[in-house]
Amino acid sequence: MEIPFAESYRIKMVEPIRRSTREERIQWIKEANYNLFNLRSNQVFIDLLTDSGTGAMSDKQWAAMMLGDESYAGASSYYNMKNAIKNILGFDYFLPTHQGRAAENVLFSVLVKEGDVVPGNSHFDTTKGHIEFRKAKALDVTIDEAKDTQAEHPFKGNLDLNKLEDALKTYPKEKVPFILVTITNNTSGGQPVSMENIRGVRQLCDKYGISLFIDSARFAENAYFIKMREKGYADKTIKAIVAEIFAHADGMTMSSKKDAIVNMGGFIAMKSKKLFQEASVYNIMFEGFITYGGMSGRDMNALAQGLDEGTEFETLETRIKQVEYLGNKLIEYGIPIQRPIGGHAVFVDAKKMLSHIPKEQFVAQTLGIELYIEGGIRGVEIGAILADRDPETRENRFPDLELLRLAIPRRTYTNNHMDVIAAALKNVYDRRTEIKSGVRILTEAPIMRHFTVELERI
Ligand code: F0G
């Protein structure tokens, strides 16, 4: 008999989580004004709000924490991180930051000016926020296949090189500080970018004299997909693929809370000494001295160890197979999800699932509420609430897709939990016609409203 796949770790420490009753959840979500961000974590049984900072560290990471050097300047932990970044990612220069958006803030303070255009593949919200805050434009040039959840494409995170070249022909070179490639493409469903595509972007960068930066939050998962799906990479190690990816880039921003499997941390890495020096000024101003930048020594140590573990094939195989396990269960139950299944999350197509609810009633949010009531599971809306209002007309923006993201924390839940999630969602699916209406907004912030919005059921 074929021996089944199993996790590449065993569990040494556990954290109790509590099941609740449906009546309790109905009460709690009402008290939370139907905003899943307002729930207390002990009101949630399985928390799929994000895979960011929610992973379980390894024994070696905890051991590394004990050896953290908390010196203000020149700590050994800083050099451990520096060595890991040089050896695994190939960059000579780096600056620690407290998380990914802080890396964006520091780097963009140097590079992005009013009136600039930053082309990329579905910039993440905070990235877009930091670009738009500087009165520049985040131009999305993702391939069109990404907008169709049912279209199968092995690298649905790719940039459309024709759209990109059109943009480079349209805008003068001085207006395009860099091209930003996000791996994996979170917004389009945790979908990877192929090495061929990265190479193609690099060629356009060279042709037009523009830099290439990589938003690298889930770079290791991206490398795993290249190994599994792209011709010529099956026999390469993850670390070799990672090195090849970053060899094409001038620099990167990193949210280490994802693929470096730490609870807090980030960094900017770059090839240019000049850029490093310019960014150092902002790093000191916003984050901290250049050898700690918002991180404690123990966190830098854990990060260095996490970068090594996170780029091991076994770690990635265990992780991505779990996401796949959940996705396949949902497909088996007939639930419409973004295909193919992405790296860090399963994205449920709420518009297809609750096709009778009008978009003005926030379909993905409604599905998120129903899944919480059904099983105490917390996902996150990637739909019209997240999209905010148009800054000029103040009208609601209704994106093409209304998705409920179920992000899977690394090394945290078992496949039994995946079974619970799938069953709960199936129950919601089976009673979907009984869900007669969605929600309406009571109060909202002018931007990033999804975090604090207050809603009521219609
Ligand atoms: N870039 C990408 C692609 C991200 O997914 C995130 C965060 C960031 C940058 C910002 O990093 O949170 O460390 O400041 N994504 C989280 C998520 C929050 O849930 O997808 P950060």
CATH class wording of the largest domain: Alpha Beta
Strand order of the largest sheet: 2-8-7-6-5
Query: Beta fraction of the residues?
Result: 5-15%
Q: Give the count of structural domains.
A: 2
* Secondary-structure-derived class: alpha/beta
Low-confidence spans: none
CATH 2nd-level architecture of the largest domain: 3-Layer(aba) Sandwich
Set down the secondary structure blueprint.
Elements: H1 22-31, E1 46-47, H2 59-66, H3 76-89, E2 93-97, H4 100-111, E3 117-120, H5 125-133, E4 137-140, H6 161-170, E5 178-182, H7 195-208, E6 211-215, H8 219-229, H9 238-247, E7 251-255, E8 266-270, H10 273-286, H11 297-310, H12 313-332, E9 345-349, H13 350-353, H14 363-375, E10 377-378, E11 380-382, H15 384-387, E12 403-407, H16 415-430, E13 439-443, E14 454-457
Parallel strand pairs: 1-10, 3-4, 5-6, 6-7
Antiparallel strand pairs: 2-8, 7-8, 9-12, 11-12, 13-14
This protein binds ligand F0G.
The site of ligand F0G has 15 residues, from helix 4 and helix 5.
